[in-house]
């Protein structure tokens, strides 16, 4: 199973970007899909999570109301719509997967760089 993130880029503050995470293989063994990010000099942090099996989602407080996570089961793809971007959103964004709510994230894709200019 592999994850491939894409969609990063350079955008001005207030702008929008949509990240995609395409999965291959038996991805549905991993029920929970998430986005994380890591800014220079900082630890990796949770951004948002969605499940393949229901509509439940969760978000970090820092992105609530600005970011929207979604998935398309038929395409085995997860998305992160990022609106009202701020310079502090600048980071490498990673998609990841875990088996369920009790498991740790143990499948990671490569990162995609998001840079927000002021």
Q: Would you kindly provide a written description of the structure presented here, covering whatever features stand out?
A:
By secondary structure, the protein is mainly beta. The protein has no helices and eleven strands. It has strands at residues 2-6, 9-12, 17-24, 32-38, 45-51, 57-59, 67-72, 77-82, 91-98, 107-108, 112-117. Strands 2, 4, 5, 6, 9, 10 and 11 form a seven-stranded mixed sheet that branches. It has a four-stranded antiparallel sheet with strand order 1-3-8-7, with no helix packed on it. It is globular. 31% of the residues are buried.
What structural category characterises the helix and strand content? mainly beta
Q: Which residues form runs of ≥5 with pLDDT under 50?
A: none
Order of helices and strands: EEEEEEEEEEE
Terminal CA distance reads 38 Å
How many DSSP E strands?
A: 11
The residue-averaged pLDDT reads: 97
Strand content: over 45%
Shape: globular
Work out the helix count.
0
> Helix content range of the residues, please?
under 10%
Which value, in Å, is the CA radius of gyration? Answer: 13 Å
Largest sheet: 7 strands, mixed
């Amino acid at each position: 199973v592999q994850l491939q993130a894409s969609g990063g880029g350079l955008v001005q503050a207030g702008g929008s970007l949509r990240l995609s995470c395409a999965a291959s293989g038996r991805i549905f063994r991993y029920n929970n899909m998430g986005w994380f990010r890591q800014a220079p000099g900082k630890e990796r942090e949770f951004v948002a999570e969605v499940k393949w099996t229901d509509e439940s989602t969760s978000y970090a407080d820092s992105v609530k109301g600005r970011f929207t996570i979604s998935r398309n089961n038929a395409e085995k793809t997860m998305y992160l719509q990022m609106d009202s971007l701020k310079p502090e959103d600048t980071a490498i964004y990673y998609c990841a997967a875990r088996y369920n709510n009790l498991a740790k994230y143990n499948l990671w894709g490569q990162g995609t760089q998001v840079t927000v200019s002021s």
